[in-house]
Amino acid sequence: MEKTLRVTRVESCIISLMGRFPILSYYANSRGWSFLISWGHRLAGLALVGYVFAHIYTLSLLFTPATFDADMKFLHNLVFTFLEWALAIPLIFHSLNGGRLILYELFHVREDEIVIRWMVILGLIYIFILGFFFIAQSPQASVPLFWSITLVVSLVVFLLVVNKIWRTGNSILWKLQRITAAFMIPMLLGHMLFMHINYLTGHDSKTILLRLQDPFVKGMDLVLIVVLLFHAGYGVFSIIADYIEPGPLNKSLTCLVIIVMAISGYFGIRLIVAL
User: Is the Cβ–Cβ distance between 275 and 62 less than 8 Å?
Assistant: First the structure.
C-alpha cells in the first residue's frame, strides 16, 4: 500500500495562501499542482532570461566606470535592494525544479512529494541566507577558494548527468539542455551567493574590473555566458514549440530566438574579453 506524505502545518498554510488566488486555485483544482509548478518553472525561466539581458547591459557600463558607479549609487536604495533580493526566488525555484526534473527523468526518483518538500525547504534556506548577507553587507569570501569549490561541484554534477544522459535516445539538443542545466545549477546559485557575500564584487566598478583580470574568473564567465544563453534559448524554443503549431509563425519566432541569443552571446563574450 502506497504511503501518503503527511502535510505539515507550514505546507498547509502555504497551500491555503495560494488557494486565495482564484487563478491558482482554479488550475490547482482542475489540473493539479504539478501543472502550476510546470508553468512556474517556465515563467521563472523567462524572468531569468530578462535578467541575463539586463546583466549584459550592466556589464557594458563598465567601459565608463564613473557611469556604472553612479547608476549603482542611484539604485542603492530599499526598493532596488528588495528587488535584487527577490530575484533569488525565481532563480532558486527554477534551479531546484530543474534538478527535480533531472532526478525524475534520468535517475528515476519518483517520490515527487518528498522532492518538492525538499525544494521548498532548501529554497527558503537559500533565500534567507541571501537576505542575511544583504543586510550585513560585510562578510568577505576568498575568490579563488569559493569559485574553485563551486566549479568542482558543478563539474561533478555535470559529469554525473553526462554519464547518465548519453545512454538515452533523445535528441542532442534535449541532452544539451539537461547537461547545461546540471552545470549551471551550482554555478548560478554560487554566483548570486558570492555577489552578496562580497557585496562590492557586484556593485563597485573597480572591484569588478579587478576580478575580471583574473584569467580563471574571466574563463568561467565566458563559459557561463555561452552555456546560459544556449539553455535560455532552447527553453524559449521549447515554449514556442509547445504552444504554437508548426508553421510560418513558429519558424519566425524560432529564428528570432536564435538571432537574439546569438547577438547577445556575441556582445556578452566581446564585453568579457575586452574588460
Answer: yes
Burial classification of residue 16, based on how many CB atoms lie within 10 Å of its CB (0-12 exposed, 13-18 middle, 19 or more buried): exposed
Q: CB–CB of 190/146 below 8 Å?
A: yes
Residue 253 CA, distance from chain mean position: 23
CATH of 32-274, one of 1.20.120, 2.60.40, 1.20.1300, 1.10.150: 1.20.1300
Is 115 in contact with 109 (CB distance < 8 Å)? Answer: yes
- Let me know: does 84 contact 24? Beta carbons within 8 Å: no
For residue 140, what is the DSSP state? -
Distance CA 272, CA 155 (A): 22
For residues 137 and 199, is the Cβ–Cβ distance under 8 A? yes
Q: Report the C-alpha gap between 73 and 57 in whole angstroms.
A: 17
Torsions phi, psi for 256 (to 5 deg): -65, -45
Q: Residue 155 — φ and ψ, nearest 5°?
A: -70, -35
Identify which of 220, 243, 186, 204 has the alpha carbon closest to the alpha carbon of residue 72.
Answer: 204
Burial bucket for residue 209 (CB in 10 Å: 0-12, 13-18, 19+): middle
For 269, the 3-state DSSP assignment is helix
Residue keyed to cell 549609487: 73
Query: Which pairs from 32-40 meet CB under 8 Å and 24+ separation?
Result: 34/112, 37/97, 37/116, 40/93, 40/97
Q: If the chain, 275 residues long, is cut into consecutive pieces of 10 residues, what is the mean pLDDT of each piece?
A: 57 68 72 80 92 86 88 80 87 93 88 84 89 71 80 93 87 92 92 80 82 86 92 94 91 94 92 87
Q: What is the pTM for the complete model shown?
A: 0.87
